[in-house]
Amino acid sequence: MPNRDSLGPWWDPEREFLPMRDWREEMHERMEKMMPHRPMMMMPRVNVSETAKEIVIEASIPGIDPKAVDITVAEDHVEIKGERKEEKEAKEKKFYRREISYGSFYRTIPLPSKVIKEKADAEFSEGMLTIRIPKATVEKKEVFKIKPKIK
What we know:
Layout: H1 4-7, H2 20-34, E1 45-50, E2 54-60, E3 70-73, E4 77-84, H3 88-92, E5 103-110, E6 121-125, E7 128-134
Antiparallel strand pairs: 1-2, 2-7, 3-4, 4-5, 6-7
């Protein structure tokens, strides 16, 4: 069996059979020590649903000032942009674990059907952004049949 020094700092015989979660946490901690902390790009999680009349997008963005959110509705997609700013006090603290992300976030959500973008509406409550967009009525295509003339 190789000795500990030949395997470097990554191998510890006392912790060799860690559950996967503990291993992941340890790797995260080691990576943070090797790389300076910088703001990360976040991507909010969303639910997209539709009813007969509208498309509803719910985005989870807790801790975000609603005034810092920019929503753009196009005919075939919705863009959500914003930023979670770090408090000045937090920069002066010595962290032992840092899992809360700060920085810009951006998400483009394709829409499943045509919408009336001018009538879109959004509300923000308890960290959940809800966007409602009425669906455009699809005109039924009329079929016009003709018969060829016989000469």
